[in-house]
Amino acid sequence: MKFIPVTTLLLLVMFQFSVIAQDMNQFHKLRKAAEGFANTNELDKSEATYLKAIKIYNHDPITYKGLASLYLKMNKLKESDAFIKLAINNGADISMLLAETNISAYLELHPEHYNLYNDLHKQYKISQQIQDKKRWVDYLTTTF
After folding, report:
1. Phi-psi region of 75 (alpha: psi -120 to 50; beta: other; left: phi over 0)
2. From CA 76, how far away is CA 61, in angstroms rounded?
3. Residue ranges of the alpha helices (H) in 57-110?
4. pLDDT attached to residue 21
């Protein structure tokens, strides 16, 4: 069996963290650019930029919320609904969604969606609590 020196392992880990940091930096730049395009009504550019950002990192509720709001501006209700659900499934709560003007106005016009999204968020929180408990039990059983 051949062993890899510790210094080589450390260099590999540092390189991996460097790549991750570069990707996250690129992700944040793309998300900010997409928000800027949306504010200047360059909706197609904004959509393309949001989608590029999601390809880099697809667990950010703020990005999904922004894309949902953009789709509401573009009057693409099905797409907006899908991205609101993705935002919730990635940790966004109702207050975060209501902070977005377009989403807030949409939910005022469609109160049944508000209840649906609120229920979806409750389910998300319950599933997170269950996962946290499982992790805790796993930790306790492997540690002791």
Report:
1. left
2. 19
3. 61-73, 77-89, 94-98, 101-109
4. 80
